[in-house]
């Protein structure tokens, strides 16, 4: 078994930035709506020995094949999505979510005889308490199957690669798979399959499959424990189903790629695991984008493994964004520091978990250009006011508008990483606007903090926070400490140094 790094940082970053946007991928399969009920457990029910969850927030997102498509959009790829929905309000919500992501909805086939699949998860803190599935798993009828086939085959003339997301919900029938994979092979369009069924015979003609450990054991009807077990399993699956490659995800043991009679092992990258739901979707999405953009199998799998490390640090099924992959490459691995830098949707998910735990949320914002002791003392005092400190950070464009064309001195990605390295900072999110009002309204902090050089009536978001009995706190600044003074001193001594 081989175990080493294949990625070249500079060329991989160029691929992500310049080639991913040109990639065209179709995702076909079982489409679902993921619903999350976020709440707080405060007591046990008197009716039965079960926790009582006081629901505080409900969110919805694309699930199943939809989550694969969401991941591809987050990576910057051009994405099509084909699947079946019911005639119900959940289908309308699903369409709305797709439109928000700029995914065309004309690939949806409505079936009046089945509901839109819904998976509802009840979460307290970062712990999933229960999942409720509302679904029909019988095979679609011939009319719906033919409609799906026609739409799917038409996509083969416009895409670089296809992902089949098979959750055994009756959409990808045996006849669909045989017909579609035969035509895809004739047209030389690679097809990656995320399998859930116990018999892989219908996947004959696919380029690769990406089963997890449980799925591999189900297909092979035997347990897989050691590295050698996985090597033998990969070879058996590849030969039996005429696959170019087999990628087996192994939870805490990473991944194993079987390719050209060799097994390549990629150890896990995550240092903290909050939720594994959706990690497989992130893996196959990054794999698909990377292969379509010209990376080799080993490079594509290594990048997918890094992305999986990000995915499991998030609560719920949340995509891995292009920027997160770029940060990982910059760091040459994953760290808890990087996991603190979040896009707003991911931050909102994490905040729901913190709030459900009864955590008091503190928010402040700024440019934090050339972080100095004044900033550190200010942020330390802000954290002392509550449990979780979130910092809103102006983007480079925002800083330039506020401070002038010579600022910022430090790029936004670097400023975010430095802030995240502070132990008392729990989350950093960037905002493009001149003020953080939209951010404050989305986060809804318990405490809003600014420096005492402001008056309370001047603090952006103060009235909003006070409207729900939140607090506004002004913290005294450290005397004679500012970025402007540092810059002026540097300018003054520059002639001497030169």
Instruction: Estimate the mean pLDDT confidence.
Output: 87
Broad shape: globular
- Count of extended strands: 18
N/C terminus separation: 55 Å
Major beta-sheet overview = 9 strands, mixed
| Share of β-strand residues | 15-25%
Helix share of residues?
25-40%
> Which sequence of strands runs across the widest sheet?
5-4-1-8-9-10-11-12-13
Fold and architecture overview:
The longest helix is centred in the middle third of the chain and has 15 residues. The chain has 498 residues and is α/β, with parallel strands linked by helices. Helices cover 39% and strands 23% of the residues. A hairpin with a 2-residue loop joins strand 6 and strand 7. The chain is built from 18 helices and 18 strands. The strands form 3 sheets. Strands 5-4-1-8-9-10-11-12-13 form a 9-stranded mixed β-sheet, with helices on both faces. Helix 1 runs antiparallel to helix 10, helix 2 packs across helix 8 and helix 8 runs antiparallel to helix 9. The termini are far apart.
Topology readout:
Elements: H1 9-19, E1 24-29, E2 31-44, E3 51-64, H2 65-74, E4 78-85, H3 89-100, E5 108-110, E6 117-124, E7 127-134, H4 142-155, E8 161-165, H5 174-186, E9 191-194, E10 208-209, H6 213-220, H7 227-240, E11 245-249, E12 255-259, E13 262-266, H8 279-292, H9 297-311, H10 322-331, H11 336-339, H12 344-356, E14 361-366, H13 373-383, E15 388-394, H14 396-403, H15 412-420, E16 427-431, H16 437-443, E17 447-451, H17 462-467, E18 471-475, H18 483-497
């Amino acid at each position: 078994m081989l175990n080493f790094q294949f990625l070249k940082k500079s060329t991989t970053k160029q691929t992500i930035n310049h080639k991913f946007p040109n990639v065209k991928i179709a995702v076909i399969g079982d489409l679902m709506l993921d619903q999350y009920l976020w709440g707080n457990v405060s007591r046990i029910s008197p009716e039965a020995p079960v926790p009582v969850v006081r629901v505080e927030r409900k969110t919805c997102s694309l699930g199943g094949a939809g989550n694969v498509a969401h991941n591809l959009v987050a990576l910057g790829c051009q994405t099509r999505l084909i699947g079946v929905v019911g005639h119900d309000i959940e289908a309308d919500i699903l369409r709305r979510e797709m439109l928000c992501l700029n995914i065309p909805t004309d690939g949806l086939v409505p079936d009046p005889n089945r509901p839109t699949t819904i998976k509802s998860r009840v979460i307290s803190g970062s712990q999933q308490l229960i999942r409720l599935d509302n679904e029909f798993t019988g095979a679609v009828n011939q009319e719906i199957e033919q409609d799906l086939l026609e739409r799917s085959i038409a996509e083969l003339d416009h895409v670089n690669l296809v992902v089949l997301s098979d959750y055994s919900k009756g959409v990808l029938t045996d006849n669909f798979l045989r017909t579609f994979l035969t035509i895809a092979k004739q047209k030389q369009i690679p097809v990656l399959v995320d399998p859930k069924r116990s018999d892989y015979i219908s996947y004959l003609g696919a380029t690769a499959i990406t089963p997890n450990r449980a799925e591999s054991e189900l297909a092979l009807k035997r347990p897989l424990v050691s590295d050698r077990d996985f090597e033998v399993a990969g070879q058996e699956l590849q030969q039996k189903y005429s696959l170019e490659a087999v990628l087996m995800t192994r939870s805490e043991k990473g991944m194993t790629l079987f390719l050209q009679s060799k097994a390549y092992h990629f150890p896990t990258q995550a240092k903290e695991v909050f939720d594994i739901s959706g990690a497989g979707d992130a893996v196959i999405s990054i794999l698909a984008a990377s292969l379509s953009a010209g990376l080799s199998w080993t490079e594509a799998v290594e990048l997918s493994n890094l992305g999986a490390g990000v995915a499991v640090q998030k609560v719920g099924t949340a995509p891995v964004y292009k920027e997160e992959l770029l940060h990982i490459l910059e760091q040459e691995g994953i760290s808890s520091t990087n996991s603190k830098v979040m896009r707003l949707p991911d931050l909102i998910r994490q905040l729901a978990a913190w709030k459900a735990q009864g955590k008091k949320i503190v928010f402040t914002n700024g440019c934090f250009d050339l972080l100095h002791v004044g900033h550190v003392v200010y942020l330390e005092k802000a954290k002392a006011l509550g449990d979780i400190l979130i910092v809103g950070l102006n983007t480079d464009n925002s800083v330039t508008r506020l401070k002038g064309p010579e600022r910022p001195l430090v790029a936004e990605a670097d400023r975010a990483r430095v802030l995240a390295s502070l132990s008392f900072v729990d989350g950093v999110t960037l905002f493009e606007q001149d003020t953080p009002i939209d951010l404050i309204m989305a986060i809804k902090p318990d405490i809003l903090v600014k420096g005492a050089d402001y008056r309370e009536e001047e603090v952006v978001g103060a009235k909003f926070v006070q409207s729900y009995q939140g607090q506004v706190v002004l913290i005294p600044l450290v005397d004679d400490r500012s970025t402007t003074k540092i810059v002026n001193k540097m300018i003054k001594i520059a002639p001497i140094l030169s």
